[in-house]
Known about the structure:
Blueprint: E1 3-8, E2 23-26, E3 29-32, E4 36-39, H1 46-55, E5 61-63, H2 67-75, E6 82-87, H3 95-103, E7 110-114, H4 120-134, H5 139-152, E8 154-158, H6 163-168, E9 184-191, E10 194-202, H7 204-220, E11 225-229, H8 233-243, E12 248-252, H9 255-261, E13 266-270
Parallel strand pairs: 1-2, 1-6, 6-7, 11-12
Antiparallel strand pairs: 3-4, 3-5, 8-9, 8-13, 9-10, 11-13
Helix pairs in contact: 2-3, 4-5, 7-8
Amino acid sequence: MTLAVVTDSMTSFSPGVLERPDVRMVPLTFHFGTEEGYRDKLDLTDEEFYRKLESSNVFPTTSQPSAGEFVEAYDSLGAYDHVLVLTTSAKISGTYNSAVSAADMADRPVEVLDMRSAEIGSGLILNEVLEAIDGGGNLEEALATARSAIARCRAWFAVGTLEYLQRGGRIGRAQRLAGTALDIRPVLTLEDGEIVPHKRTRGRKRQMAAMLEEIRPAVDNGRPYSLGHANAPEPVAEISRQLGGGEAFSVSISGVIGSHVGPGAYGVARL
Length: 271
C-alpha cells in the first residue's frame, strides 16, 4: 500500500523535499491590504517579502487554505493508496480544520495530524515521517513515527519585539514577556502547539545564550535539529558555529510566519 504526504506552507522544507512526487504543499496566503495577496513560499522570495514588510505602511494579515485547496492536493495524489496530512498547530492556524473538512470529501483514506508546531519544528517532524516511508513504512508505521516525533519536538524562537505577534493576535500567554525597556529580548517556545513564554532576557547575547542552552544537549546527543531565521542569517550562523555540527538543516522563514514574528526573529528546534 503506497503512501503520500500533504503538509502546509508553515512547514520548513529540507532541500529536495518539495520535488518529491509523494509530497504536496498547500500554501497559506498573506495579504497587504485588500488588493495584494500572495501564496506563502510561492509568489514572493523571502527577500522580496521582508523588503515589502519593512517598507509597507500596511500590516500584513494571513489566511488559511480552504478545504477545496486541500481536496485538490489529495486528488493530485491519485497514484497513492493513502494520504497522511501533517498540519501546523491548530492553536496557531485554522489550517488543521480545513484539512479535516477536506478529508471527509476525499475519495481515498486520508489521515490528518496536528503537528502542534510550525516551520522548523514541523520540518523536523516531516523529515522523520519521510524517512519512515523511504524505509518501507506503511500508513500505521508512518502514523506511529509522526506521533512520536510530535511528542518529542521542541522549538524555541527569539524575537526583537513582540509587536508583530501582538498585532497578529498570535501572542497567547507570551503577552507577559512584553517590554521594551532595558533592551528586553524575549525567548518564546511552543507548548502543546501554543506560543508561550520561555525566558525574558536582556540583550542579544543573553538571548542567544538562552537558545544555545536549550539546543546544545540535543546536538551533543546526536539528535536532529533545525535552525530558522526571519531575514536574520547572522545569529543563526553564529549558533551553528558554536554548536559545531550535528544533524541539522537551516532555512529562511517565509511570509506567513514572518508576518507574525517580524524581521530579525530566529529559532531552533530539535527532536
